[in-house]
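Pasting as-is:
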Amino acid sequence: MHLRTKRIGPHPYLYAVDTSWNGGHPTVSFQTYMGRADTLFGTHATPLVRTFHFGAAAVLLQLAREFQLIPIIDEVVGGGHHPSVGEHLCLAALNRAVGDPCSKRAFADWYEQSSLKRLVPVPSSQLSSQRFWDAMSRVDAAACQTIFQRVAQNALRFLAIKDQVVAFDTTTFFTYIASDNPQPELPQRGHSKAKRHDLRQVGLALAVTQRDQLPLFHEVYAGNRNDATSFGALFPQLLQELGDFGQGPLTWVYDGGNVSARAQQKVEAQVERGALDYVTSVSPSYYPDLLAIPQEEMMAIDPTSYPELAGFRVQATTRRRWRREVQLVMSYSPELARGQLHGVLQHRGEAAPRLTQLQAALARRNAHSRGRKPTIVSVQRRVERICSTQHLRRLLPTQVVEEDGQVRLHFSVDEEHLAHLQQHLFGRRLWVTTHTDWEPAEVVRVAHQQASVEACFRQLHDPDHVAWQPMWHWTDQKIRVHGLYCLLALLLVQALRVLARRAGENRSMDAVLSDLDAVEECLVVPRLTYPDERPHLEISLSVLNPVQRRLLGLVGLQPAAAV
């Protein structure tokens, strides 16, 4: 990089310029205005300084290069003119990952403030909304899957990850697409996990490695499809794409919400062929004999072998289910039990006063005989609404009767049933696995790796880094491409997480990325000592603390060589 002087009128203006070879000819790949050259000497002279956000963008870009992200996209959809489709989508993924998600209209301004202006030189005029939309239009649904699969395969090879357990789950993201817009079919009203039932939403299915939380598969689907239906519909594609990673026969971990008779038939057929094993959950109520076992008779898990399961108890047996012998493991978690007890006591504490108020209102109505007379049916409906929460009907047994021509409500608090729930239900989950030879504690440990995919969902719902929201698209094709670059951003961030963990950095990724984003690249033209001295350009990074220096070194970016 060097300085170039442009004289406009009587004043010389300095620009930092970098060139590259294009077709055998040098072309300007980077240029930024520094200031007027005649202000560098004299009593009031000050150095010319430009700073750019460097750390997070440079580290993630280096990972993208290691994964061949841009070449893969351009190979799948065709590169075309500069900037290519791959460059557009790579920049969009970096924008999401770094933590400043902006609309395509504001993208050029963000790009100008980042070192990406130098590292991925693109004319700002080519980063307009229209250019982005043109690039996105060239990526169809099949290309989205192919691109993500190939990039994820490169990530596995680069990180040397071998993991035979994958976790699968689904989530939803609400949108602000108008309800009367008939064009998109992906945004639909359905069960919103964010409780925004008033908005249309899209669904996202995700499969990740259980140990390193590296995403291997994603699919954007219609928001009105429930989890079990989505799992069954995606099963053939999941089987093919997860099998292509060459990790050997996989053990799939999926939540009980994805279990249905039709989907499980497909799973069992592949188990017969030796293509996969599984760990999933079913409702403990299917096996009352296991629920009847007191906590004290369940086997305690050794905390030295499984420190993450300290305090857990298990009860294992082999049963025939889904036409095969499987291992059933009943687990007891004291933390889960405390949470369930707290929730039930909270709901009971809210319902009991409402029943008392209804009881008193009926007594007043019976005493004064004014207004519309309540009926047994109408009072029972109100009681059902009050006690609609799980377990309340048994914890607060009620009786609505007519005595002497007057409707009365009687209720009590059943402490014995609460004690029964604490002893035989709270804290318990039932796991089903084809691994009949596994230790019960190992089954529970692997089952809890469902948290790996849930951690990825939390990252996607994070408003700062790898944020899915906001989404400024309203056609199915654009929504799928939006999902692609968001998942590519997640892949890059999770890869950085793997490298950071291996280096002993156990903080959250938000903290790691914030530390990196504070690293700035500085272009400085120092003050001149003599009036005829020639200005020169100095390039450096901002002052680094030991943590930032170590984070840059994760991908080989040392301060002396980073620029």
